[in-house]
Amino acid sequence: MKRQRFAYALSVLALLSGCGGGGGGSNGTSVISSGPTPSATPTPSPSPTPASCSLRSRQDWALATLQEWYLFPETLPTNVNPASFSTVGDYIDALTATARSQNRDRFFTYLASIADENAFLNSGSSAGFGVRLTLDQSGTRLFVAEAFEGAPALAAGIDRGTEILAIGTTSSNLQTVASLAAIGGNAINDALGPSTAGTTRFLQIRDSAGTRTISVTKSDFSLTPVSSRYGAQIINDGGRQVGYLNLRTFISTADPALRTAFANFRAQGITNIIVDLRYNGGGLVSTAELLGDLLGANRTSSEVFSFTAFRPEKSSNNSTKFFSAQSQSIAPTRIAFIGTRGTASASELTINAFTPYLHSNSALIGTNTFGKPVGQIAIDRAACDDRLRVVAFATQNASRQGDYYNGLAGFVEASCQASDDLARPLGDPMEASTRQALNFLAGQSCTAIAGSGQTSQSLSTARRTLLTPDHPAPAQREVPGFY
Predict the structure, then answer these.
(1) Predicted confidence (pLDDT) per residue in 87-135, tens digit
(2) CB count, 10 Å around CB of 79?
(3) HEC string of 176-208?
(4) How many whole angstroms from its chain centre is CA 15?
């Protein structure tokens, strides 16, 4: 979850932001900045700005920032020697290791490039093939879960359900995915190459057309947060009209598409809706709030969408977001939220917000979610292109519920297990999760999702993992599995 920038002293900027899968996620990365001015504007205490961008000065700056803002200050160690670490990122990981072991900060606090992150959060700009990749349970088979419009992979005929069998820099040095998996570590990620425009890879792929080898070159493109192919549509389910929305990530360019989609839903009298967040690792809080408002025509301006709570000595920055119905808003009687372990952060915030109002008429469909009920502020040190994302606040719904560190399955009042059917397009009424969502909206019974962080292992989606490198790029934090 992420918000907007605000001024800070001595050339340092701060950005009130939220979980990103990104970070999330992006874990989920969670995820993941820009957006409307936040309702709360933290005012950091001035701190010395080191004269250089040496490793030690950057480490000292990171430590001072964590000591001031970290949501779990009691977990910060006092005996970690910065000289033992060759990067700022490794030092930050050591400082947050205790909270990570407690499942409260799973690499959500990290150092990023200001320029790279702004490029993605402001416009979805990134370089890649334009696919989302997932591994099966064995970790030896690699599939395309989604392909993005305007990107090289889709133009080359790669789409959802395609299996990548082998990867090489030429057609004569292909390495099988199974052999790369046997190497372990980041071998598959490394074989796919850096997130740099112009990087070419030869891929042996298999899909409904057979097996073949193709070359694909990474390029810069802007991610479309609501797909032009299936992102917003009305499904005729046995005579019932159901709205379907698939949101890939919470970035500011999603806002116009969301308004357009809901204006159409409203014009068609939609009261049953599917919100597909199955791979959405998070992003801007402001976009999550807009989605809540567009689903909140029957909510009043005195009803709470979410609470934002900082640590006690920073409580002056706490805020409350109330619903604010828009001209495009609909009044849903039932909502089916599709989620997986790739669903995190701002996605979970949105799902959690409707439970106190719709109760069992709002359901989680698919599997359990990632579990990221916390958000980051971002402190910028522009001279060094450093943005430190610090877990600094927790989010809660109107019932003050916000402890879903192991996922939402144990907190929603209704849920239905469903698999992620790669053989069918997203939004297809016969795709397993979409079908289960339609069944829930029709009032049919189902098997609930387990609330322990995993669902039944009979579900194929519970056995898959979105491919994520050890050091994800900004787009990969907000869009889990992005390559």
Answers:
(1) 999 999 999 999 999 999 999 999 999 988 888 777 777 789 999 999 9
(2) 4
(3) EHHHHHHHCCCHHHHHHCCCCCCCEEEEEEEEC
(4) 18
